Amino acid sequence: MTLMATDSSTSTLTQTDPRVKDKAQKFVLTLSCVERAGIVQAVTTFLFERGFNIDEHQQFDDGLRETLHLRTAFSGSPEYTPERLQAEFNSIADRFEMKFSFHDQTKQRVLVMVSKFGHCLNDLLFRWRGGSLGGDIVLVVSNHETHRAMAEAAGLPFVYLPVTPETKAAAEQRLLDLVDEHNIDLVVLARYMQVLSDDLCRSLEGRAINIHHSFLPGFKGARPYHQAYDRGVKLVGATAHYVTAELDEGPIIEQEVIRVDHSYGPTALSTVGQDAEALALSRAVRWHCEHRVLLDQTSTVVFR
């Protein structure tokens, strides 16, 4: 620690003292707009004039779509809030016709939905408790009682929400009520085996992630790993994507692949596939919670 002495009884911490740095508030700015000159300069000047330090900067200039996507992490005065930053940034955003958002260090609140397969839920809970998920799991919802003990052992409330054709609408409304009651930022379908209605998908647009058991599209329906075995696959994969009204057609966030061969039967393929599913889903959740995923029409830009 470096001190600057003023007299025998007082001292002032210089900016090299680590405690000064620790007091800085951390923020993330994400934006997308039509590509044109001056955008990055406008952003960096805005931050410099307010005394912020840029900790991380990534951008992607999409020459085909003529768009710019940017993520900048910065730190500085704790007197600022995302709301204040947004208000002061609006004039720049209007000039460049930006779609943008500011975020502070507040962690995303996550609701996890699961059915009978528990490998993805188990992996998410492990990463959450270890502090590497990027968000906070606050609730587990399921149409089966299978994993109540797993959720409650992690100290999480478990909501049993059975779904039948007759109760589907009421169950989905209850889910939306839970999202509001618990201030949920992200809904994760961790092998939740119910098709969401178009209305629910639209209500959760951009804030619901699903995991699919293959590279999309492929092996849809029941017993996917038996289908894979029958076709003699050489690669087993998984796809994490945003939920849309078009089943399994949402913008893709992450894909994972594992090489296999003729010796893998359906059970072995399922085991390997579950590893791929858990890994792809946890990455997608973490990147979303860290504001590293920018939606770009039907695809995504992911700043890892």
Automatic annotation (TrEMBL):
Signal peptide boundaries: none
Record GO terms (molecular function): formyltetrahydrofolate deformylase activity
KW Hydrolase (keyword) present: yes
Catalytic activity: (6R)-10-formyltetrahydrofolate + H2O = (6S)-5,6,7,8-tetrahydrofolate + formate + H(+)
EC number(s) reported in the record: 3.5.1.10
Active site: 248
Formyl transferase N-terminal domain boundaries: 109-285
Pfam families assigned: Formyl_trans_N
Broad enzyme group: hydrolase
Pathway it works in: Purine metabolism; IMP biosynthesis via de novo pathway; formate from 10-formyl-5,6,7,8-tetrahydrofolate: step 1/1
InterPro entries documented for this protein: ACT-like_dom_sf (IPR045865), Formyl-FH4-Hydrolase_C (IPR041729), Formyl_transf_N (IPR002376), Formyl_transf_N_sf (IPR036477), PurU (IPR004810), PurU_ACT (IPR044074)
Alphabetical list of PANTHER family matching this protein: FORMYLTETRAHYDROFOLATE DEFORMYLASE, FORMYLTETRAHYDROFOLATE DEFORMYLASE 2, MITOCHONDRIAL
Family: Belongs to the PurU family.
Protein name: Formyltetrahydrofolate deformylase
Organism for this UniProt entry: Pseudarthrobacter humi
Lineage per the UniProt record: Bacteria, Bacillati, Actinomycetota, Actinomycetes, Micrococcales
Gene that specifies this protein: purU
